[in-house]
UniProtKB/TrEMBL annotation, chain A:
The keyword Electron transport applies. The gene is OLE2. SMART domains: Cyt-b5 (SM01117). This is Acyl-CoA desaturase. It holds the Pfam family Cyt-b5. Belongs to the fatty acid desaturase type 1 family. Keywords: Electron transport, Fatty acid biosynthesis, Fatty acid metabolism, Heme, Iron, Lipid biosynthesis, Lipid metabolism, Membrane, Metal-binding, Oxidoreductase, Transmembrane, Transmembrane helix, Transport. Residues 483-508 are annotated as: Disordered. Stearoyl-CoA desaturase that utilizes O(2) and electrons from reduced cytochrome b5 to introduce the first double bond into saturated fatty acyl-CoA substrates. It is a multi-pass membrane protein. Its EC number is 1.14.19.1. Its cofactor is Fe(2+).
UniProtKB/TrEMBL annotation, chain B:
Residues 380-462 form the Cytochrome b5 heme-binding domain. CDD domains: Delta9-FADS-like. Expected to bind 2 Fe(2+) ions per subunit. Its cofactor is Fe(2+). The gene is OLE1. This is Acyl-CoA desaturase. Belongs to the fatty acid desaturase type 1 family. The keyword Transmembrane applies. Keywords: Electron transport, Fatty acid biosynthesis, Fatty acid metabolism, Heme, Iron, Lipid biosynthesis, Lipid metabolism, Membrane, Metal-binding, Oxidoreductase, Transmembrane, Transmembrane helix, Transport.
Amino acid sequence: MAHSGSANQFISHASQLKNTHMKEMRRRKRDLLRRINYSYTFTVAVLPLLAFIYLLRTGESFIPQNNDTLVFCCIYYNLTMLAFTAGYHKYFTHNSFKVRYNWVKYFFAIFGSSVGLGPIRWWASLHRAHHHFTDDTEKDPYSIKRGFVWAHWGWLIRKPKITSFYNEFMEQEFPKNPEVNAIVNEVNVDQDDQDYSEYTSDDFARNSNYDEPLQQLLAWQERHYFVLFILTSFVVPVLVTVFFCSDTVVHGIIYPGLLRLFWCQQSLLSTESVCHLKSVQVTIPTQPFNDKNSSQNCNNPLVSFLTYGQAHQNYHHEFPHDYRGTSSFFAYDPTKWFIWTIDKLGLVEELCRTPENLIIQLRIQQQQQVINRMKSQLNWGTPISKLPLITPNDFKRIIASSSNKDRIYIVIQNIIHDITPFMDQHPGGVPLLKASHGKDATKAFYGGVYGHSTAAVNLLATMRIGMLDVGNNEEVWRRVAREEGEVEKSDEANHHSNSKSYRTAEAA
Amino acid sequence: MTEQLDTADITALNALAAGTNKKTPRIVAAGLGGRLMGTAEMVKVTAEQITEDSLESLADKDAREKAKYAKTKHISELPWTFGNFYKKINWLNMILVVAMPAFGTYQAVFYPPALKTLILAFVLYLFSGLSITAGYHRLFSHRAYDAATPVKLFFAFFGAGAVEGSIKWWGHSHRVHHRYTDTDRDPYDARQGFWYSHMGWMLTKANPKNRARADISDLSTDWIVTFQHRHYLLMMLVSAFVVPTLTAGLFWGDYWGGFIYGGILKSFFIQQVTFCINSLAHWIGVQPFDDRRTPRDHALTAVFTFGEGYHNFHHEFPSDYRNALKWYQYDPTKIVIWVLSKLGLAWNLKKFSQNAIEQGLVQQQQKKLDRMKAKLNWGLSVDELPVWDREEFNAKAKSDGLIIISGIIHNVKNFVKEHPGGQALVRASLGKDATKAFNGAVYAHSNAAHNLLASMRVAVIRDGNVNANTFDLQQQFLDKEKLN
């Protein structure tokens, strides 16, 4: 029967659908398992969790009871954090300064690995990708657009979809192959016709951060990352705890090992999550330099403390090469203090500082943009060019008509204004307005009777209804140009080069 | 076209604005009180004179006045000497605002107050203070709202108790103050210093050269105002002194305390607080709406003056019944008026449009920003740059480290080493046009980078496509790329 046939067909179709659906789910599950980044899950989730479980089971305090261990924890926390923020972040990623001695680089590389956020090559190239493609949902590895949890933890636990992109990016930023000077060679080929006698290749090598030794260092660190991690996260803390603080091995693993690890990670991860979040007002977020991306200056000093002085992300995203986290002298910024100190000790050189002028310029441009946005939302009155032209005779006729008996029209600078709705609010009283009805009150308005305030001039503009046609077109066009040039200026974020005093710089 | 529109007759308008168009000239503080206070001669001015003064330049006016008063100087223009100081002082005001409070303070030292008397004094202080701010100021002077007769009567009676003159006189001076803020005609000209605008103006005789008038025809037609004006002395004595003395005396036998605390000292406090609006509110604080004139916004002033401290706003939008806009700003007067309106005792509360208010804010911010901008180095503008030929550029490019970006030659020699993207990229572009590379092909530079670039300008290349606004250019490039 046709009916049963179609029913069978339907059932088979349904089961087929179900099968594909199941397959899809299984595939997704498999994908999920494959896409979990086990090593980072282990360092950022499993290890701290184990420590918590241990402490909760045994009922021991989260703060070490042994005084020496506590002191050691604080010292070790700062040491590893500085190795990470000054080394991984400011040196390897942003090239904020040059290191004079190799052992300083090794110090950064070894103790930076104790935070468990991966080898330098991996973390630094991802961080560069974050700066390069901020807020891009795919290319920014910890884009806040994918949610708070993703920006904080998710990006470590799940592998990105576009793994090949990141691999290529990593290869581009920190090439592994021995041709370190590939770019340089390319450049030299590129400019055969030019002769840069004054720039020696020696000059170049000294100033380039990513040179052969550094490349070897990164390769070495990546190769031995796991050993270094175990060494700095467990072996060193345990040894110090046992031999110098006379505490137990377990306490050595828990306190300066895992809890410190957890605390370091949270400090670092929250810069990418908390400091990119606008919706939470507790952190007092502002964007004084650029509000086109999600980076926020968190002005709550508590956030500054939590993030180890990296709370001013809006500044950092605009001036990533600055060795400081923000330009303010008084900001809580241990990394800045550390780098400054080792600079004075002569271990590093050529600290990158953004000139104060640039910072103020950017601040001003951002404010300008905010103001422009506010301006564009306000009613500044009908522009002169859009006003209907009315001849004086027509205007007289309009006034004379009985339907306009109760209205008040006043001409100021040849523009006809309908004052009727504002009449009762006029601070100088209605009689003055009535006496000026249908007349040119330019002089009276601008000082003859009262020199009106800026606010009054603004209000007047909103009451325009027409332009008196007195036959002086040139004058009209001059005013159009003057006024609407201004309007255009406030409408568009970007000025054109015909404004006299400031140029390019003030764009956006 | 020859047809012309009538021009508003400024003299006629001024006559209106000054209220001199009436057949019977309006009298402000005439008679004994007026003569004592010295206000009568300050208002004897015609519309013609005002118009003449308003339209001519200040320099002309000064010259004319100088010539006029070259021989006969008014007492206020003479220097203070032992021989004439008593002539310069306005003795009535001296007694009312200095001598009596001094006497009260002296008595208070020897006469500790009863708690009930203090409470009475405080309540009367609130009544009189609010009568001045909500009544004298916002209702009568600025017509910021309309009020029912009982409310007006309350304001007229307790306002008289503040010993600051009648509504008519007070309102007139205040309107003159708003009309001529920060000019010689301003009765409490803030430019002459804190103490002048606080008390000095009333303790000394004013110069009739600075006569001014404002229209108060609406006040003159209000029977409450005229009644209060006619019987001001009596009302003032009853409201300021008799009421507290009798209340304290009849109910708890503290006649003297009632007179000292509820009468003299209460009036003294209100006076000082009101004077603060003329002095403190033009002295400390910020100017978010317009900084052309002296009025300022400050929370401290607001706390002292029942919320009149947001004076910058008030001078921009005088007939707004509010002085504070934000919920956290202290303006009890506004709240009182609002409550009255909810009780049906006040209506027609005037508010300026939010649009106009925000316009003022934005313009003032823009002004500040422009001032900051003017202080910075934004690089030379394109018109100021010399024009170079290709050959000239090629010759110098090697030695000077030059790069062309959007038709402008930049000297990057000192910058190469500081380039965040590494030197190689800059070096590769030396002597070339790097417009595309700079604007996104290699890296879309930040705003700061564009600023920095502008500061390195050297010249303009001939026949180059000059666009000084490199940031716009970059946006165009990026948009194009997005489309592709």
